[in-house]
Amino acid sequence: MAGSIDAWGKGKDNKPRAEITEEARPGRRLQFCVHCGSADPAAEAGTMDNRPGVDEINAPAPVQNRDDTSEWRRQTHLEDESLESAPTPPSFHTRSSQASPPRRDPLSPIATQLYIVSHLIFFSLWGNLARLGMQWLTFYPGAPIVTPVLWANVGGSFVMGFLSEDGRLFRQEWGLDNMDPHTREKALEQEKSDPAAAKKAHAKTKKTIPLYIGLATGFCGSFTSFSSFMRDVFLALSNNLPTPLNHPYSAVPSFTSTIHRSGGYSFMALLAVIVYTVALSLAALNVGAHFALALDRFTPTLPFRLIRKFVDPLVVVLAWGCWLGAIFLSIWPPDRPSGPSSRGSWTNEVWRGEVLFALVFAPVGCLLRYYASLKLNPITASFPLGTFAVNVFGCAVEAMCYSVQHVPINSTAGALVGGGRVSCQVLQGVMDGFCGTTTTVSTWVSELQSLRRRHAYVYGMASVVAGLCLMVIIMGSVRWTVGWSTPACVTMRTSL
Fold it and tell me: Which Pfam families match (predicted)?
């Protein structure tokens, strides 16, 4: 077998072959890594150029072996995908259609960037709302898990797994429906003869589509939050993790009403939050991929012309309009004294602290994460530096805002906690909006799933340790010295 496979992974017939990555041993399966020709879909489908640094859209699909009865187990890694991000020869689809003239001009770089930014803004707003809504729904009396951001992280990872494995939604963007009948027939025949290459070509194509980038990077990345995860880890360590009232007592729980416990219990609580968050998020990523495979024959295909001619321009209007609407609502909230949902006085106004300020800051964090990943992730394939940087940076900002929100600003006797109601609401908006969308768990677990085992453990442990250390240094220095007070505004954790 070694003689039939050369150093470039090709056989005697000059076709791609599976490159052996593990020696054959008695009674043990061989592990293969399929290296197929990659496409240049931007030239064929008129979409943007490939984005190697954004791992929400560039990571391999969670399910490498779509057929449970297959004799060989195939596994690709994010390191391999990084090597393939360089310009490569065209795939069989491109080669089959080279004889026919192009049917449409590619989008201009300015229009492409406008569509990408608009999709990121639009879906970051929806992802942020979904996370806040999931936290409100799952923080109830008697809840078995009192870290509600867990379910947002699970939901975002599930959607990420579905999008990564799906091969139907963006099938028309592949270009098959836009070929002439003869070329399309030849391409379909080659697709059937080499399904692995066809799957990889389609995966590279959909990762260039603004709508897919908006869903994977914008929605899933904003639906999940690494900074909130790390905040809950520290609160479990410091015995300040709020719990909904679940016993018939008249006292309302607060940050000072938790029962004292030993340090050993706090350490076990810290491990519990880390273990069940990482485990459930990884499981959700794989379940989402399995769900995509189960619904493959029932999943519709989005029409290419509808997306390109109607949806993309519409999202530009909706994205910027919704963002401006959130800014205007923050200036004139509906529950202000003279508003349509007035509650009497400004002291009863809660919209800005619970949702509006978060929507104002959400697109900023999402765009920062996207462009940071675009620039930093390609530096090293074995350690996604961009995702690591934004997650650590978001944890630092989260810790600072949380500490300022829970202490008096000055030392006078009448000093307001967090600087008063409006300042408290702005800080809450920065934590829920900016930090929540700057950091991500869905991309993080997707990278953990895609990296080689040793690299995945190093990257995962480095992310958790760095985030927790920042929380201990920033939040712990306040918690264990001057102490925390109840914030001056209504938040999800103080309104139940």
Answer: CRCB
